[in-house]
Amino acid sequence: MPTDIIMPQMGESIVEGTITKWLKKPGDKVQRDEPLFEISTDKVDAEIPAPASGVLQEIKVTEGTTVGVNTVVGTIAVDGEAAAAPAKAASSAPAPQAREEKKEVKKAAPAPQPTAAPVPAPDAARDDGEEARSSPLVRKIAREHGVSLSQVTGTGLGGRITKQDIMAFIERPSAAPAASAPVPAAQQPASRPAAPAAYPGDLVPMTNMRKIIAQRMIESRRTSAHVHCMYEVDFTRIVTLRAKQKTGFEQRHGVRLTFMPFFVRATIIAIQQWPIINASLEGDNIRYHRNINVGIAVALDWGLIVPVLKNAGDLNFLGLQRGITDLGERARSKKLKPEDVEGSTFTVTNPGQFGAVFGLPIINQPNAAIMGVGGITKQPLVVTDKEGNDSIAIRSVVHLTLGYDHRLIDGAVADQFMALVKKSLEGWNEEIG
After folding, report:
1. pLDDT at position 181, please?
2. Annotated catalytic residue, options 33, 79, 301, 410
3. Contact at 8 Å (CB) between 340 and 46?
4. DSSP string spanning 333-390?
5. Does position 23 have pLDDT exceeding 80, yes or no?
6. Please, which residues have CB within 8 angstroms of residue 217's CB and are 6 or more apart in sequence?
7. Per-residue pLDDT at 187 exceeds 60
8. Which residue, 23, 21, 19, is CA-closest to 126?
9. Is 65 left (phi over 0), alpha (psi -120 to 50) or beta?
10. pLDDT(329) > 80
C-alpha cells in the first residue's frame, strides 16, 4: 500500500497549514526525511520531510491550498510498488494564477517594482531538463515564437510561468528568438533571481506569512501606546575588538563573531536592573517575567520572522552567539519549530544591516519593548579625555532606538534603561571567549 503524506501538526495550537510549494513532482524518486514540500502556518514556514522512501505517486493538495492538520496531501509508492503518477495529479492542475490567462494582457515592457513581500524563487527551469512549470497555452505561445521557457522568469505561484510572463518576454526589445530546443546548460543563467518582481498593474495575492505580519502589526499598533527614544552610541571599542578577534573566535568555536551578541548582552544587563522592560500586560495586571527570552528579528526573502533565544540571561557571550547564529540559520532554511517563535519577552531588530541609520520598530506583542539597531558608520565626534580636554575624532557610531509601551513603561525608565545599554557598549569589558 502507498504511504500517505499528511499535513503535520506544527504545535498544539495549530489546526491548519498552507502548502506553499511542492519540491517534487509526481514520478520523482524521494528518500525518507528528504524535504518534500513547504508549508506555512500562523507560527512558522517549514520544510516537511518525506515519511518514506519511494516514488511520489500523487499530489492531492495543490500549492496555495490550506487544509487541516492530518489531512492526506499526497502519497508515496514505496520501493517495489507500481508508482505511475496519475495523469490528473494535482501538481499538473492549473494554479490560481493560470485562470488569468483567459484575460487580455496589456502590452507593456516589464519594469521592476518593489514589493513588500517577495514571492518565492521561481522554479521555471530544472537541471534535469524538465519542462518549465506552465500551462499548455503558455507552452504553445513559446513554441510559436521560438522561445525556451528556461529563459523566462515565472511570477506565478511557486514560480509558475503565466501568460503575462511569456508575453512580456516576447515583447521585450532585447528578447531574441531562441531555438525550440532547450537552451544549452552553458547558456543558461547560473542562478535565478531570489524574488521575481511583479509588473506594474499586477495584482498579486498576499502570502500567508504576509497576511499574518500585516494582522499582527495592526494589532500591535492598536494595542500598545507606542513611544520611541533614540540613543547615539560610540561603538568604536567593540568594532576594534571584533576586528582583532573575529578570526580567532571562529577558529576556536566554529561560529562567526557578529555584533548582535554585544547588543543582546547589553540589553540583558539593563533588563536585570530595569525588569519592567521585560514585562507584559495581562488585563489590569503586569507580568514580570522570570526569564529573559530575546526575540531576534530575521529578515527572509519571503517575509520576517522572530525566533526566540530562550533563557538568554543564563547564557555567556559564546552561548549568545551560538544561539543567535542557530536561530538565524534555521529561520532561513525553514527548519524552525513553533516553539522556536513563542515566548519572547523582549525583541531586538536590526534594520541597520541594510544601511538604515535608525528605525522606529513596532512592538512585538505581548512584549513591552523592542530595540532597533541602526547601521554602524564612521562619524566625527567630540571626545573628552580624562583631563577634560575635548577633541574631534573619527569614531564608529551606532544609533539605538527603543520602542516601548507607555502603558507600562514611563519615559524616565526607558531613558535610564537605554543609558545603561549605551554605557555597557561604550565601556565593554567582558570576555567574549
Report:
1. 35
2. 410
3. no
4. TT---GGGGS--SEEEE-GGGGT-S---PPP-TT-SEEEEE---EEEEEEEE-TTS-E
5. yes
6. 362
7. no
8. 23
9. beta
10. yes
pLDDT at 371: 98
Question: Could you confirm whether 390 is annotated as catalytic?
Answer: no
pLDDT for 105 equals 38
| H-run or E-run covering 416 | helix 411-426
Strand-pairing partners, residue 399, are 232
34: Cβ contacts below 8 Å, ≥ 6 apart = 49, 50
How far CA 283 is from CA of 223, 275, 306, 334, in Å, comes to 12, 19, 24, 34
CA distance 144 to 147: 8
- Separation between Cα atoms, residue 188 and residue 145, nearest integer Å: 18
- Residues with Cβ < 8 Å from 379, sequence gap 6 or more? 394, 395, 397
Phi first, then psi, for residue 28 (nearest 5°) are: -75, 145
Instruction: Give strand ranges (E) for 54-115.
Output: 54-59, 66-68, 72-78
Could you confirm whether 399 is annotated as catalytic?
A: no
List the grid coordinates of 23: 519540491
Poorest-pLDDT segment among 196-210, 236-250, 396-410: 196-210
**∠ CA(369), CA(271), CA(325), 5° rounding?**
80
Give the pLDDT band of residue 9 (cuts 50, 70, 90): confident
Cell of 140: 504553445
Residue with C-alpha cell 535608525? 358
Q: What is the pLDDT of residues 58-72, one digit of tens each?
A: 999 999 888 998 999
Report which of 80, 19, 67, 69 is spatially closest to residue 47, judged by C-alpha positions.
Answer: 19
Identify which has the larger pLDDT, 381 or 107.
381
In order of 150, 160, 162, the CA distances from 123 in angstroms are 9, 7, 13
Structure confidence by residue, pLDDT tens digits, 293-321 = 999 999 888 788 999 999 999 999 999 99
In this predicted structure, the answer to whether residue 81 has a pLDDT above a threshold of 90 is no
| Cβ neighbours of residue 92 closer than 8 Å, sequence gap 6 or more | 26
